[in-house]
Write a structure and sequence with these properties.
single chain, 347 residues, two-stranded antiparallel sheet, 3% strand, disordered C terminus, heme, oxidoreductase, transmembrane helix, metal-binding
Length: 347
């Protein structure tokens, strides 16, 4: 297997790790207005991801760094062409991260509600815009190969907001919401757990319907793709896992529901990667302008060095993250949350 293909797979694995792990983070943030009836409820929700949310986001940093080093042309074209969308994602992530740290710095309803809003919208926008971006990579974007080297994006943010792109964004957002609700049910007890399961059941139905429409649309769009067999297989596994996760949640088996959602996100992304390969960005201006894996890759020496670094570092990262989740594996209760000032009663 060529190193260009190896690094396409490595970047794909890192992005899958990011969406699986930070995906339930986003879902927990989205659940604040629905499950957080009191300030204590909201503190319980935030504490379910408190020890791990920043660790989960490092997967995006590592994926971005790997993308920059392995496929600099892909990185440059996507980050310049999707600049406004990525800027909005960055602002949302910053506000969300700041809110986790500053929410508890002062007492008072107004103070906490401002940061709760930042957490909610900072959890909605990133998966929505990421979904729009990845859907457009599959559908194709107006990029043009430049004679002097590189590619130039000739669209705008509105170009990305087409029906297929918006459906992809909504599906990714709902997948993260469902994933987060199941995680809340997995990490809490009593009324909070029951409410999370009920909401996950209702949201899950909508997610299944829209995800099925998106996967079918993706398959139809790629009927002439040489990887169509792999695309159908990955889409089928994603669909079965999503329905299985919904059924497991209905039966009160949050652990299996979480596994089902994890498999769904992983194979939904594999469906997208299968539709892309061996390309990185498909041009709507003609096949001659399409960016291939080989054409956008770094030199073989660079890829070889990066491969050795990845071989030694990725197992350490995975081991450390697994250990962190093991340490913080217990369920949370309201009794674990210290009593606040009287502002709690009006929160």
């Amino acid at each position: 297997m060529e190193l260009t293909t190896v690094w396409f797979l490595i970047v794909g694995v890192m992005l899958i790790g990011y969406f699986v792990l930070d995906g339930f983070d986003f879902g927990v943030g989205m659940s604040l207005p629905f499950l957080g009836k009191t300030n204590t409820d909201r503190r319980v929700l935030i504490n379910t991801i408190g020890p791990v949310w920043d660790l989960n986001e490092t997967w995006l940093i590592v994926a971005g760094a790997s993308l920059f080093a392995a496929f600099p042309e892909w990185y440059a074209t996507m980050f310049s062409g999707f600049y406004l969308a990525l800027l909005l994602i960055l602002i949302a992530l910053i506000l969300r991260g700041v809110s986790f740290e500053f929410r508890h710095q002062r007492k008072g309803v107004k103070w906490t509600r401002w940061f709760d809003q930042f957490i909610f919208w900072g959890s909605v926008l990133p998966p929505l815009l990421w979904g729009v971006a990845f859907a457009n990579l599959v559908q194709g974007v107006p990029i043009r190969a430049v004679e002097t080297g590189g590619w130039l994006y000739e669209g705008t943010l509105l170009t990305l907001l087409n029906p297929y792109g918006l459906l992809g964004g909504i599906v990714v957002m709902l997948l993260c919401f469902t994933h987060g609700l199941v995680f809340v049910a997995l990490k809490t007890v009593g009324e909070m757990r029951d409410n999370a399961r009920k909401l996950a059941k209702n949201v899950g139905i909508v997610t299944i319907v829209l995800a099925a429409a998106f996967l079918v649309w993706t398959i139809v769009m790629n009927l002439s793709n040489p990887n169509i067999g792999l695309i159908i297989a990955c889409a089928a596994i994603a669909a079965v896992a999503l329905i299985g996760g919904w059924a497991a949640n209905l039966a009160g088996r949050e652990g299996w529901a979480f596994v089902g959602n994890t498999v769904t996100i992983a194979f939904a992304l594999l469906t997208i990667f299968s539709a892309l390969f061996p390309n990185l960005m498909i041009s709507t201006l003609g096949d001659e302008h399409t960016m291939s894996v080989v054409g956008a890759a770094s030199s073989p020496k660079t890829l070889e060095l990066m491969t050795w670094v990845a071989v030694f570092t990725l197992p350490l990262v995975l081991a450390y993250q697994a250990w962190t989740y093991w340490v913080f594996r217990k369920r949370l209760t309201h009794e674990m949350i210290p009593v606040e000032q009287p502002a709690e009663a009006t929160a």
